[in-house]
Write a structure and sequence with these properties.
The chain has a domain of 76 residues. 23% of the residues lie in helices and 16% in strands. The strands form two sheets. Strands 1-2 form a two-stranded antiparallel ribbon. It has a two-stranded antiparallel sheet with strand order 3-4.
Length: 126
């Protein structure tokens, strides 16, 4: 069994506390840069969910293309969505997954995709 000398995320917490990058190994925004990106996205959205454009408490930023898949920390890759839609992005395709695709100049196309599994889910074309 692999034994860790520190808890998961402890090194990242130390980097952030020192004002450093959020991640190691790929380009990442600093905390100040991330705050500026979030403020820009929130202003663009008018503090409303960008999917349904309704006033809903608890909106948060969401990476359209996840950083783990090569997405970047930029306003063009971040959307302001409510908790309901944030959960729907991770729904199984059988229940209807919300798929968001960036288009141009900070705009996004989205639709609900139903499929048997992720391998047969159709590709969303913007």
């Amino acid at each position: 069994m692999l034994r860790r000398h520190s808890r998961v995320g402890e090194a990242a917490a130390r980097r952030r506390k020192a004002g450093g990058k959020l991640a190691v190994g790929r380009r990442s925004a600093t905390q100040d840069e991330w705050r500026a990106i979030v403020a820009q996205v929130r202003t663009r959205a008018g503090d409303r969910c960008e999917i349904a454009t309704h006033d809903h408490p608890g909106c948060d930023p969401h990476h359209v293309k996840p950083r783990s898949l090569g997405g970047e920390d930029s306003a063009g890759n971040v959307i302001w969505i409510c908790r309901f839609h944030h959960e729907q992005v991770d729904f199984p395709f059988k229940k209807g997954r919300l798929v968001i695709v960036p288009t141009t100049a900070g705009r996004f196309a989205w639709r609900i995709v139903y499929a048997e599994n992720k391998w047969v889910a159709p590709q969303v074309v913007a």
